[in-house]
Design a protein that fits this description.
Blueprint (H helix, E strand, L loop, with lengths): L9 E7 L3 E6 L8 E10 L5 E7 L2 E8 L5 E5 L6 E2 L6 E5 L5 E9 L1
Antiparallel strand pairs: 1-9, 2-8, 3-6, 3-7, 3-9, 4-5, 4-8
Length: 109
């Protein structure tokens, strides 16, 4: 973990309504990493769905959403971030075509 420069954090928000893998943050380029300070995910509809948050091909978080409103909030303790592997994208794998929304707070490290 590294110290967070609060001036460089950016939010990205969206919604996904498809099964399979969806990139939410593209690979930042050679020699760079994505640093994540936190994220939220919330189901927008009823129905069971498993979500895998991945750094490249590695699963780093697993969520089970069952009903509308289910979700999670993850925030790294003050002064730290979660570093994704060098030049790796962040994506979410969804097991079903059930809508969910996300917000990720990140910066390029």
């Amino acid at each position: 973990m590294v110290f967070v420069d609060q001036q460089r954090i950016f939010p990205v928000s969206g919604s996904i309504a498809a099964s399979g893998s969806t990139a939410i943050l593209d690979a930042p380029g050679e020699g760079q990493c994505i640093a994540i300070a936190g994220y939220t995910i919330q189901s927008l509809a009823d129905g069971e769905q498993q979500l895998l948050i991945k750094s490249g091909t590695v699963t780093v978080a697993r969520l089970l959403l069952v009903k509308k409103g289910d979700g999670a909030v993850f925030w790294v303790p003050d002064g730290y971030v979660w570093l994704v592997g060098e030049n790796e994208p962040v994506h979410i794998d969804a097991s079903a075509n059930i809508s969910f929304a996300y917000t990720v707070w990140w910066y390029r490290a």
